[in-house]
Amino acid sequence: MKLFIPVKVTNPSGQLSIAELLLGIDYVYTSSSTGTKFVNISLWFPSGGTAPTVDTALVNLANQGAKIFVIAGNGSANVVNFPMAHFNHSNIYVISAIDQTNDNFASFSNFGATVDYAAPEVNVYSIYKNGGYTTMSGTSQASPHACGVAIMAKYKSMTYFFIMARSS
């Protein structure tokens, strides 16, 4: 059975708190859906830095067998201090960025030893507010690409959760 379940973790203004993110991760963790769970998390922490409670929740979810795709970030910096992207786990994939023209590493993308893959994220045609479309750049465009490729390439029975930060 194939399920695509968006899990919104922001308030109506698009603001995120650690507590809301933890509730979204817990929702995925306790979900009764069958098959492999694929989770894309394309968002930035409100406080920057690391959050041990989120790390613990992600590791618990990954240990359950979920495949979790997280953004490397857009600060042209090492991911060592970036939330969710600073540690290695066999089921947590840190996604950096390449351009679409020459497959070059995007100058604004974070980098480091925990980065697993890079995907297109420069001038990606994207759905936008109020039903519109625009081109966007950032690792938040790359991570869902990588997650989608993993879904299509490997599994027939799956569940996909898209934890998103989006204002309505």
Question: Which descriptors would you attach to this protein?
Answer:
168 residues; alpha/beta; 6-stranded parallel β-sheet; two-stranded antiparallel ribbon; 8 strands
Description:
The protein is an alpha/beta fold. It has a single domain, classed as 3-Layer(aba) Sandwich (Rossmann fold), CATH 3.40.50. Helices cover 24% and strands 28% of the residues. The protein contains three helices and eight strands, in the order βαβαβββββαβ. The protein has helices spanning 18-30, 52-63, 139-154, and strands at residues 2-8, 36-42, 67-71, 92-98, 115-120, 124-127, 133-136, 158-164. The strands form two sheets. Strands 1-8-2-3-4-5 form a six-stranded parallel β-sheet. The model has no long low-confidence stretch (mean pLDDT 81).
Topology:
Elements: E1 2-8, H1 18-30, E2 36-42, H2 52-63, E3 67-71, E4 92-98, E5 115-120, E6 124-127, E7 133-136, H3 139-154, E8 158-164
Parallel strand pairs: 1-8, 2-3, 2-8, 3-4, 4-5
Antiparallel strand pairs: 6-7
Helix pairs in contact: 1-2
Summarize the structure.
With 168 residues, this protein is an alpha/beta fold. Helix content is 24%, strand content 28%.
Element-level helix/strand string: EHEHEEEEEHE
Instruction: Give the number of DSSP strands.
Output: 8
Helix fraction bin: 10-25%
Strand adjacency order, main sheet: 1-8-2-3-4-5
Strand portion: 25-35%
Please tell me how large the radius of gyration is.
Answer: 15 Å
CATH class: Alpha Beta
Largest sheet: 6 strands, parallel
